[in-house]
């Protein structure tokens, strides 16, 4: 309730609703770009921060979750993104219990590049962590990869997808190529708009390529009408990794990638 004596502010139109679509993964795949691009659409309202409801904050309850959401009109879709959901065992069941009709978006990229990007981000915050090679292998000479390290584990997409397919049909999950999001953002976002059942409003005219960052940016953002690029933390120069290590990781991921391609019926060409 407003403090006594204070005049009520103008009522904002719309209602806070539970999301009809969630970007559930993956970390360092391009989820922030998808969220920033889709929220330009007049029929989409997106929560800017990651609520981590279905992994860390589930005990707070659905009403707490709903209270975080932006207000929407009946014609608008509420979207949130928390990339860690994809690798959280309980997330599929919890989202299904909220609504079995929830549409799920998963942004994937080459798991080797993704792991290096993940490590680069961690290194920027904790400069004294072990080397990428040291964390990747349990035994380098035998080529034994340490699948308990999160940066490696996240890229085993086929494994995580199994948990989701126990609750949701493939038709309710849309996979965005993190690579194509850079080379053809309008094409990838066109497919996202089709999946959400909304008109293709976001097209080539919304993007320009930022040579400094090495990825596309919006000509106009949702809020200001000014050009909008992702923050300083996006587009970091990756740590240089021994090519032999990259080759060993490619070999490790290959069977997982092939199984993933077969399951989703889409070849992402990561080989």
TrEMBL record:
InterPro entries xrefs: NST/OST, P-loop_NTPase, Sulfotransferase_dom
The keyword DNA-binding is annotated on this UniProt entry: no
TM helices/strands, residue ranges: none
Pfam families: Sulfotransfer_1
Compartments reported by the entry: Endomembrane system; Golgi apparatus membrane
Disulfide bridge partners, by residue number: 217-229
Residues that bind 3'-phosphoadenylyl sulfate: 28-32, 109, 117, 234-238
GO cellular component, one term: Golgi membrane
One Gene Ontology MF term: [heparan sulfate]-glucosamine 3-sulfotransferase activity
EC numbers for this chain: 2.8.2.-
Residue ranges constituting the Sulfotransferase domain according to the UniProt record: 19-254
Active site: residue positions: 28
Keywords: Disulfide bond, Glycoprotein, Golgi apparatus, Membrane, Signal-anchor, Transferase, Transmembrane, Transmembrane helix
Record membrane topology: Single-pass type II membrane protein
PANTHER family: HEPARAN SULFATE GLUCOSAMINE 3-O-SULFOTRANSFERASE 2 (PTHR10605:SF10), HEPARAN SULFATE SULFOTRANSFERASE (PTHR10605)
Recorded family membership: Belongs to the sulfotransferase 1 family.
UniProt protein name: Sulfotransferase
Origin species: Gymnorhina tibicen
